[in-house]
Write a structure and sequence with these properties.
hydrolase, globular, 16% helix, 8-stranded antiparallel β-sheet, Beta-glucanase-like, binds 2-acetamido-2-deoxy-beta-D-glucopyranose, 396 residues, alpha+beta, Glycoside hydrolase family 16 protein, signal, Jelly Rolls
Length: 396
């Protein structure tokens, strides 16, 4: 499934000299024994670009960038969804030309990507509010997805999501809801929807709380049960959704999907790890995720296939409409939708969305034993190889 590069190329990738202002984290725990404390001018001029991690079986890998969605070209590789909302929102999803013409999707001169619900039009009773839903043209099978956003939509009657969904018949190719909430909730909810046979493992290995149905934790991810509820986990952080997320400058959400399972982390702005900022993400250093779907309860490869990435903002509907009366929001959702000033916070402000793929550092087809042998040899000889490559590169 993962592509393989020759070791020499990886060395080049890893140890191309960076400018001296770039200081990356994790150097002192580098598997190569290079240390920030080193006084050797040759070695100290070489900073790893990416962080090596190792699989349970000892195979080394790193996350390398696959796709970057940001800035003026952001919308080029997305489709605008212009059908009725399958979750029954009182929304009209507009097509690409309308989205740009109506100012519901654009990129600012500062390269921030904006998607929003209409906040300028008064509606008659029963009329639907314009908004956008976009899907990545590219489909993914595994990856590390990192969204940096200054704001995410919220407000009474508003129901936004940042999610991925399989290309086949729903829910059999899976759905991963990374950011989702309604009204002025303050806690993000991560949810999986799958075909039958998938469950959340009751586990202390994530920091969130599983969503209960009728007082019992709902661990069954089968999207066909419980009104399509799926299996959800609510984050503990008050800055993970809504007013506080926006007020403190947003942050970063990361979703890691590989054969170890599917995990989500969120970091409010001041806590974004430097390895994410520098473009060399190392999830093994991020601490416990807020939510994890472990392979013990759900095969993350067979239940999640050909995923597009989706952003949307809907109104009322199955979640925001059905929960409105108990939300503390004023009046009814149907009334709420009419006044445009109720939707001033229903907007995404996105700095970037990056997708990384797992790159095994070496490999072959000759079987597990030689793999393991290779792995030991590589670790043993890596420092020497690196010095040789460095000397060749720098001409020292
Ligand atoms: C959606 O847009 C496509 C082309 O952009 C068009 O062919 C189709 O008729 C539109 N569907 C609706 C429901 O507006
Ligand atoms: C976009 O939708 C509008 C209706 O709102 C329609 O008039 C227009 O033809 C559509 N554009 C395309 C490219 O489908
Ligand atoms: C996933 O996409 C590939 C390539 O388009 C296709 O061959 C395959 O049938 C798809 N798998 C499912 C389960 O939809
Ligand atoms: C939690 O993580 C630890 C270390 O990764 C692992 O040994 C343990 O089995 C996990 N617990 C559960 C319940 O999955
Ligand atoms: C929008 O956000 C601001 C700042 O948090 C808040 O004061 C205001 O009430 C919000 N408006 C709506 C309609 O949610
Ligand atoms: C609509 O919302 C945007 C933020 O998305 C805000 O800048 C603008 O002032 C709002 N317009 C009105 C008329 O409230
Ligand atoms: C180690 O695990 C990775 C990921 O599961 C796999 O791709 C690789 O083939 C495994 N290596 C060996 C030697 O089994």
């Amino acid at each position: 499934m993962f592509e393989l590069l020759p070791l020499s190329l990886i060395c080049l990738l890893l140890f191309t000299p960076l400018d001296s202002a770039t200081v990356l984290p994790g150097i002192s725990s580098s598997p190569f024994g290079l240390s920030r404390r080193t006084t050797n001018p040759l070695l100290s001029s070489l900073q790893p670009r990416s962080q090596l991690e190792s699989e349970a079986n000892g195979t080394m890998f790193l996350w390398v960038i696959q796709d970057t969605y940001q800035g003026q070209n952001f919308f080029d590789r997305w489709d605008f969804y212009n059908y009725s909302d399958p979750t029954h929102g009182t929304v009209t999803y507009v097509n690409r030309s309308d989205a740009f013409d109506l100012g519901l999707a654009y990129v600012t001169p500062q390269n921030q990507v904006i998607m929003k619900g209409d906040n300028t039009t008064w509606l008659a009773s029963g009329q639907y509010r314009n908004s956008v839903r976009i899907s990545s043209q590219k489909q993914y099978n595994t990856g590390l997805f990192i969204l940096d956003a200054d704001r995410a939509p919220w407000g009474c009657g508003v129901w936004p999501a940042f999610w991925t969904v399989g290309g086949g018949a729903w829910p059999y190719t899976g759905e991963i809801d990374i950011i989702e909430g309604v009204h002025d909730n303050q806690h993000n909810q991560v949810t999986w929807h799958t075909g039958p046979g998938c469950s959340l493992t009751p586990s202390s290995n994530f920091t969130g709380t599983s969503v209960a149905t009728n007082g019992q934790p709902n661990l069954d991810c089968n999207g066909l049960l419980d009104n399509n509820a799926g299996c959800g986990v609510v984050e503990w952080s008050r800055a993970s959704y809504g007013p506080t997320f926006d007020a403190q400058g947003g942050g970063v959400f990361a979703m890691k999907w590989d054969d170890q399972g599917i995990s989500v982390w969120s970091f409010y702005r001041a806590a974004v790890p430097t390895d994410i900022v520098s473009g060399s993400p190392d999830p093994s250093t991020w601490g416990k995720p807020v939510a994890t779907l472990e392979p013990a309860g759900c095969n993350p490869i067979t239940n999640f296939v050909n995923h597009s990435i989706v952003f949307d903002i809907t109104f009322c509907g199955d979640w925001a409409g059905n929960s409105y009366a108990t939300s503390g929001c004023p009046g009814t959702c149907a009334d709420r939708i009419m006044d445009p000033s109720n939707f001033v916070n229903a907007s995404w402000i996105i700095n970037s969305l990056q997708v990384y793929r797992k790159q095994l550092v070496y490999g072959g087809v000759s079987g597990a034993e030689s793999h393991h042998f290779l792995s030991n040899q590589v670790v043993r000889w890596m420092p020497l190889v690196l010095v040789a490559v460095s000397i060749a590169l720098l001409g020292v």
